[in-house]
User: What shape does this take?
Amino acid sequence: MRNFLVGLGGFQLLLGVSQAVTHTFDWNVTWVTANPDGLADRKVIGINNQWPLPLVDVNKGDRVVVNMHNGLGDKSTSIHWHGMYQEDTNDMDGPSMVTQCPVPPGSSYLYNFTVNQNGTYWYHCHTDYCYPDGYRAPFIVHDNESYFADSFDDEMVFSMSDWYHELMEDIKPEFMSLYNPTGAEPIPGSFLFNNSISQSYPVQAGKTYLIRLINISAFVGQYFWIEDHTMRVVEIDGVYVDETEADKLYLSVAQRYSVLVTMKNSTEKNYGMVMVADSSLLDTIPSDLLLNQTNWLEYSSTAAHDNVTMPVDDSSDIYPFDDITLVPYDRVELYENPTKTLELTVIMENLDNGEGYALLNNISYTAPKVPTLYTVQSAGDLATDATVYGDYTHTVVLEKDEIVEIILSNQDTGTHPFHLHGHNFQLLDRYPAWGADFFDYDAGTTFATFDADNHTAFPTYPARRDTFVLPPGGYFVIRFKADNPGVWFFHCHIDWHLMQGLAMTFVEAPLEIQEELSITTNQRDVCEAAGVAWEGNAAANTEDYTDLKGQNKPPGFIPPGFTTRGIVALVFSVISAVIGMIAITIYGVSDLKFTMTEVGLGDGATTVTPEGEVSAYRD
Ligand SMILES: *[C@@H]1O[C@H](CO)[C@@H](O)[C@H](O)[C@H]1NC(C)=O
Ligand SMILES: *[C@@H]1O[C@H](CO)[C@@H](O)[C@H](O)[C@H]1NC(C)=O
Ligand SMILES: *[C@@H]1O[C@H](CO)[C@@H](O)[C@H](O)[C@H]1NC(C)=O
Ligand SMILES: *[C@@H]1O[C@H](CO)[C@@H](O)[C@H](O)[C@H]1NC(C)=O
Ligand SMILES: *[C@@H]1O[C@H](CO)[C@@H](O)[C@H](O)[C@H]1NC(C)=O
Ligand SMILES: *[C@@H]1O[C@H](CO)[C@@H](O)[C@H](O)[C@H]1NC(C)=O
Ligand SMILES: *[C@@H]1O[C@H](CO)[C@@H](O)[C@H](O)[C@H]1NC(C)=O
Ligand SMILES: *[C@@H]1O[C@H](CO)[C@@H](O)[C@H](O)[C@H]1NC(C)=O
Ligand SMILES: *[C@@H]1O[C@H](CO)[C@@H](O)[C@H](O)[C@H]1NC(C)=O
Ligand SMILES: *[C@@H]1O[C@H](CO)[C@@H](O)[C@H](O)[C@H]1NC(C)=O
Ligand SMILES: *[C@@H]1O[C@H](CO)[C@@H](O)[C@H](O)[C@H]1NC(C)=O
Ligand SMILES: [Cu+2]
Assistant: This one.
């Protein structure tokens, strides 16, 4: 069956070969100023001095060549083509220290790959948490052979995102900080609809549109609906699904939906497209943060543009359907008999520097000294031994074509949209089911666990996508086939959680990767300019690949007998000794920061770095 499909794909490719186009882009990535919500000017990452960034629009079978020059001057970067399988081009995937070196200022990296898949994708930078600084945009693959190709007249693409008014580099020290031991995520300043707010989008009465929705948020998910119009879902994350009606959608970070929407025949009224931010993710809601926003399908510029108010509450009508119930149009069957089952548990915990970290089975992902792909390429036969990738990249080595099952449990009260690079995966089970209880985990109750001997029947034709939401206190079960040799990152797509280490690595068929790829001169030059080694194990050891002395490590665990509160108090008593403050224990941690600022110690006050050194705190 598989071979038949591959053969068919090759045949189509052959037929289409004369039409395949190469899209070549020269992108100079630089800082520009933008103010998309009208609330504040800020520095954003632009391409060729423009922001919003260019939408990439290609046909299936086309080649994309992007020569990315880093003109930022002050930080490294790279691009991930979110959802692209990168078959035979793993080195074009983009995450720094996974498949390439970070591209330092003044250097250029050549991305060059073909697109043999359909649907709605996006691109974003994947180095040091930079996409909330604006470095993200849609990537659309048109397919005139899709089963719904004749069912629409025109297309519209909308992105949805949260928006911060500060630079990531300024937010990060506040987030990853002693002063934030609970790991409370930064609250966005606003929410953007297609990089703007309250806009009108002209439509023609009677026409049917294919509307592509992309959630390019860093953190906050959104509900979306169109006043008085039904959406018919036809694609999720690049996978066609049987047409399914939906009144409302929930898009988590990084998810995409394509929907067909037929316009009314009358032009008397304009209709709101409503975007409501999921406030369950926010620890506090500032009074000036607008959670709801109306944009309009504009039938007539002279008709009224009314704000739509519609309650979003716990009633079931906001949960119209569960993505797990969608049926893939291609009817790929459930992958049977997994050869590898990984039971993974998410925990958020304070490590011994007092800061909040995320752990998957006790490992907080810490980037290696050599990009994992380059370790594969330089390790010879040892590439099949997970040891060489180090203890903190959380690497699992997979054999070609094996069926991998992941049972991911959440012992945290937060939501985690997990994304797998290089693949989509089948959605088998999830608890709680999508619905009113989904986000309602009660802290203190036991965490749900998957029982392999007693669970709801897996779907015969499971839905597939590349990003799936793990509910608070619950679990999900997914499967994928390791049919794409490469180094593929699996991580939470909430950028704050990735920063805390919520990631792991699959090294799939490493000996085949060695046959397919060799590191190019351009790739080596980028590493050398970045001062990063391009051969060796995770510790950059080229002599003995099993010796990991000097590898990068996360902070240590809090010693047994110490509570989190205890360690925070301990670290603070060091601070208090140094700066001569007393009685800090009577303040909460955030109050303390306020107090220090108030008494003029906010700037230049002292804290303890992860290495245990005492240094100045930058407020
Ligand atoms: C479909 O799109 C391809 C480009 O991907 C083009 O070559 C072909 O002519 C199109 N076919 C139809 C029927 O429009
Ligand atoms: C990139 O843009 C910056 C700012 O406009 C400019 O100074 C620089 O020369 C450009 N670099 C390239 C390689 O185009
Ligand atoms: C992109 O890759 C293709 C296939 O390997 C190659 O033929 C082409 O020369 C490459 N383009 C550039 C600009 O290097
Ligand atoms: C991609 O498009 C082709 C042609 O429309 C279709 O046969 C195939 O099933 C699509 N792939 C997915 C994953 O939906
Ligand atoms: C949304 O923004 C993108 C990128 O700026 C733009 O290409 C697209 O046309 C916009 N969508 C609509 C429906 O105007
Ligand atoms: C985007 O994703 C975030 C995080 O999961 C979610 O809170 C938000 O509601 C999503 N946006 C849309 C429009 O669905
Ligand atoms: C609009 O008019 C067409 C043709 O008269 C009709 O087929 C269609 O059902 C009407 N659409 C709606 C939404 O009423
Ligand atoms: C609609 O809502 C926006 C905020 O989203 C507000 O600024 C505007 O005044 C409202 N318009 C009307 C007519 O109520
Ligand atoms: C925004 O949505 C909330 C429900 O989430 C609702 O209570 C409130 O009335 C809405 N506000 C506006 C201005 O639409
Ligand atoms: C995680 O660490 C704790 C304490 O060291 C230990 O009890 C537990 O078994 C570990 N869990 C896993 C999955 O390794
Ligand atoms: C199987 O799971 C169901 C639902 O959680 C539960 O009600 C039932 O008691 C379980 N059966 C066994 C044999 O554990
Ligand atoms: Cu997360």
